[in-house]
Amino acid sequence: MLTHILILMVLALALLGFWLGKRKAILAATSLHSLPVHYASYVLLMTILPASLTLAIWSLAEAWLLHDQSLTLSTTNNTLAQTDTALKSIVVIIVAVLSLFFAMQKVSPEFRARNVVEKFILAALMVCAALAILTTVGIVVSMVFETAHFLNLHSWKDFFFGLDWSPNFHGDSALSILPLLWGTLYISCVALLVAVPVGLLSAIYLSEYASSRIRSIAKPLLEVLAGIPTIVYGLFALLTFGPFLRDLFGPEGFFAVGWMSDTRSVATAGIVMGIMLIPFISSLSDDIINAVPQSLRDGSFGLGATQSETIKHVLLPAALPGIVGAILLAASRAIGETMIVVLGAGAIARFTGNPLEALTTVTTRIVSQLTGDGDFNSPETLVAFALGLTLFALTLGLNIFALYYVRKYREQYE
Amino acid sequence: MNENIISHEELAMTAPTIKISARNVDVHYDKTHAIRGVSAEIPSNSVTAFIGPSGCGKSTFLRCLNRMNDTIKNCQVSGDIMLDGEDIYDPKVDPVQLRAKVGMVFQKPNPFPKSIYDNVAYGPRIHGLARDKSDLDGIVEQALRRAAIWGEVKDRLSAPGTGLSGGQQQRVCIARAIATAPEVLLMDEPCSALDPIATAQIEELIDELRQNYSVVIVTHSMHQAARISQKTAFFHMGTLVEFGDTKTVFTNPRDPQTESYITGRIG
Q: Residues with Cβ < 8 Å from B140, sequence gap 6 or more?
């Protein structure tokens, strides 16, 4: 019998249990502790859970044993598998019927089915929360293992303190994070230089000056920017903005200065990334400025301050912790951003201060190291995990600092 | 001696200087008619109390006197309000400068999230009242002394104003209003968020402030109005029902509505 038919049978039994439980509860007719639906759900859950647990354990054990026996003859293996499946189906059905029977026995007016059902729900909620956390832990652990593997094959001194990034296939690659980190930080800084002033000033305009009509139109429009996939920003950088910059600063450009040879550059990726971050900063800052109590605005106006004085001296200082938090969160997004830099920043790892030259970042190198056809166990590929882990540590640190900063200064006006 | 004092008082009563005079003031919020044809004359160097049940328009009228209603959208004020004979709703008048002259203290203490010193120095700084640092120090100290809180905060001027108790915060807010050298002080239920001891301190302070400013106070407490004010205005349903000397209003009200309110039958 196939597993999914088995599962359907257990479900049918459970539904039968639901109906029987409800009927028994209604027929009991004396004052019930819980609603009939609680007794019904109790029987349903009690039918499904032991059976599915048995099925899961059996299947796991089966996979384990068959894996060990994979060397034995395939014919014996086949008959063995058949008897095993039949036995499994019978056992699971028996477990389901027995638990249904015991659950029905339990249904009586004094039985607190409601409390039991609620405990099940609580357990389900906890399992979901734990799943999310465990996944994060799992990701970090797998990264740590691969990173350790990489550091066994490659000198950690070169990785952290070397100055060169030049992977090759002779086994003597220089794989240093520093030039990549320089690219990441440089491009992120350019992005923030664009996003912070524009985002913050538009937030001030929207929250303090704009009429409610303009606000109701402009705010959703700004937030549409946040919904654009980053690959689309990347295309914009590659096909529109990069060529535009080269037309200005290239050898045959408008200024004829020849500062820019390629369409890909720090400025191309950085400015487009900045545009991507604008709604992030403006939307968060707008909420934060709006959260400053009206009484502080009144107090300032009541002393004869103008609107701009009120914003400069009262609102912004009061909202500063939140704004700093928003900027730090934007910074950690900029550091982790991939698609825009893959398309817009170029692939040359070096230390350059010229924003019109191509640079590469940690994220683009992760992509290129893993998408090549190199041996998976070579340091040239495994370096991607070390890069990823370093990046993760960096953004995690920024996020923690942002949360800490926001919490520390948040209570100032309460 | 005695006769002399009475005659002085009588002199003051018969010829008080009018600081603010309002004539036929109406206020609309959208379609709500919040104030209907209010006319009142507020004398200088005295405390005028506005009393009345909630929603009667006393706070709205108070906020007309320094054009704070301008900051509320859809709020329309009509009628004449003269400060020292000048129409404050004249297009020539800058509401920002008017508010420096007519200070305001709010219901809930609202110190800025800055140090006590910076709170009090806020007004003088934005209006350029101090020539230098020591001048500013002097203004801050004097304002805090007048608000009767200097002794409590002089050793911690750089501590945040939000860390003080409610009554202290409110006195810092009064100091902050005084520091801009206003001529009129508007107080919108300044004691409603305070305990009885802090209330008593603020009341005492208001009585002292009368010597230098005209004080207009909105209050829910009739006892407070009776204790600290010289003039009392009773508002009901957006109209000014009765306006006169506090003693007369409380002991011998002209209008039956005032009498009902004072004796606790309405409101």
A: B117, B120, B121, B124, B157, B175, B179
Q: Which domain holds residue A31?
A: 3-113
Q: How far is CA A156 from CA A109, A152, A176, A367, A370, in A?
A: 69, 8, 9, 21, 20
In angstroms, the first-to-last Cα distance of chain B is 43
Whether B6 maps to a domain, the answer reads no
> Is the same domain home to A333 and A242?
yes
B188 forms beta bridges with B218
Q: Indicate whether A197 belongs to any domain.
A: yes
Where would I find the beta strands (DSSP E) of B106-182?
Answer: none
Are B68 and A298 inside 8 Å of each other by CB? Answer: yes
How many Å apart are CA B142 and CA A233, to the nearest integer?
Answer: 59
Interatomic CA distance for residues A26 and A401, integer angstroms: 58
Domain range for B36 is 17-262
Residue B145 domain-assigned (yes or no): yes
Q: How far is A284 from chain B (nearest CA, A)?
A: 20
* Chain B residues in contact with A313 (beta carbon < 8 A): 112, 122, 126
| Residue B231, beta-bridge partner list | B48, B245
Chain B residues inside the 8 Å CB shell of A299: 106, 110-112, 173, 176
Structure tokens at A63: 């996979």
C-alpha B179, offset from chain centre: 15
b/e map A267-285, b = 16+ CB within 10 Å:
bbbbbbbbbbbbbbbbbbb
Read off the DSSP letter of residue B217: E
CA distance A397 to A391: 10
Contact A306 B96 (CB under 8 A): yes
User: What are the backbone dihedrals phi and psi of residue B81, each rounded to the nearest 5 degrees, phi first?
Assistant: -125, 120
Residue that the structure tokens 């007369």 belong to:
B248
ipTM of the complex: 0.85
Best residue in B83, B122, B164, B174 to probe A by mutation, most A CBs within 10 Å? Answer: B122
Contacts of B104 in chain A (CB under 8 A): 298, 302-303
Q: Hey, is the C-beta of A314 within 8 angstroms of any chain B C-beta?
A: yes
For chains A and B, count residue pairs whose Cβ atoms are closer than 8 Å: 73
A320 interfacial to chain B (CB closer than 8 Å)? no
**Side-chain-side CA neighbours of residue B144 (13 Å):** 24
A98 in the same domain as A176: no
| Per-residue pLDDT tens listing for chain B (267 residues) | 444 444 444 444 445 688 899 999 999 988 888 889 999 999 999 999 999 888 888 999 999 999 988 888 888 898 899 998 889 998 888 988 899 899 999 988 999 988 999 999 999 999 988 889 999 999 999 999 988 899 999 999 999 888 898 889 999 999 999 999 899 999 998 988 888 888 888 899 899 888 888 999 999 888 899 999 999 999 998 899 999 999 999 998 988 888 888 887 765
Residue of A nearest to B126 (CA): A305
Indicate the length of chain A as a whole number.
Answer: 414
Same domain, A298 and A395: yes
* Nearest CB partner across the interface for A318, out of B71, B101, B113: B113
Please, are residues A21 and A42 in contact by the beta-carbon 8 Å criterion?
Answer: yes
Q: Supply A318's token pair.
A: 């009061």
Q: Are B53 and B236 in contact (CB under 8 A)?
A: yes
